[in-house]
Design a protein that fits this description.
It holds the Pfam family Response_reg. This protein is of the alpha/beta class. It is about 45% helix and about 20% strand. The protein starts with a strand and ends in a 6-residue tail after the last strand.
Length: about 230
């Protein structure tokens, strides 16, 4: 899962990045309004953490811009503003949640998970598709109730595919999803190909069905509905 942190407090952002990276999230960071604008215009995220007080702009205006772009990311406001009016305004204008500073990192992690689960996985911790069962909390995968050992990257790819089922995903999108701000990995499509090849092999050998399709010269698609 890919997270964009938009916050002018470098020390807090570093702590969040460290914690969320340990929880298997890919984190990108923008410390200004303008940098956040440029990232949102180009990339897609599973969840955005947005501070309202940015050094060069008002985060509430950025929230409005995100919603005008019709982006599908969940947005959690992380702000020192504690007024009732700020919270109501943010929630009425598209924020999925509002967390006041200071906060406990496990609570932040729980709220991120809840927003992503609600938006992408029908508010369930368990995904079942045919013989395939994925436990989002335990980060485990079973086929016909037999555990399938996946690497972290393979698991991240699997749930990204499932969360974007029936949508063709380019190699560039997948590289960005797995690499975050590591520019070198974004351009190394051979690495992405290797992860996908291994994932497809494990799923097929386990008997999950041929859900993960290669779309010639375009990318890949999790094609589940056609096999229901």
């Amino acid at each position: 899962m890919k997270i964009l942190i938009i916050d002018g407090e470098l020390s807090l952002s570093q702590v969040m990045i460290s914690y969320l990276s340990a929880e298997n999230y890919i984190c990108e960071y923008a410390n200004t309004y303008k940098r956040a604008q440029s990232k949102i215009a180009v990339y897609d995220y599973d969840c955005i953490l947005l501070d309202l007080d940015l050094p060069d702009g008002d985060g509430s205006k950025l929230l409005e811009e995100i919603k005008k772009r019709d982006k599908q990311e969940g947005v959690i406001i992380i702000s020192a503003r504690q007024s009732y009016e700020d919270k109501i305004y943010a929630l009425q204008n598209g924020a999925d949640d509002y967390l006041t500073k200071p906060f406990y990192l496990p609570e932040l992690g729980a709220r991120i998970f809840s927003v992503i689960r609600r938006r992408k996985y029908n508010n369930s911790n368990i995904i079942r598709q045919g013989a395939l069962t994925v436990d989002l909390l335990a980060k485990t995968v079973y086929i016909h109730e037999v555990p399938v050992p996946l690497t972290r990257k393979e698991f991240d790819l699997l749930i990204y595919f499932i969360g974007n089922k029936n949508k063709v995903l380019s190699k560039q999108e997948l590289a960005e999803q797995l690499s975050g701000d590591i520019a070198g990995l974004r351009d190394d499509h051979n690495v992405i190909y290797a992860h996908i090849k291994n994932l497809k092999k494990k799923l097929q050998e386990g008997g999950a069905g041929n859900y993960l399709k290669t779309i010639y010269a375009t990318g890949y698609k999790w094609d589940y509905c056609t096999q229901d």
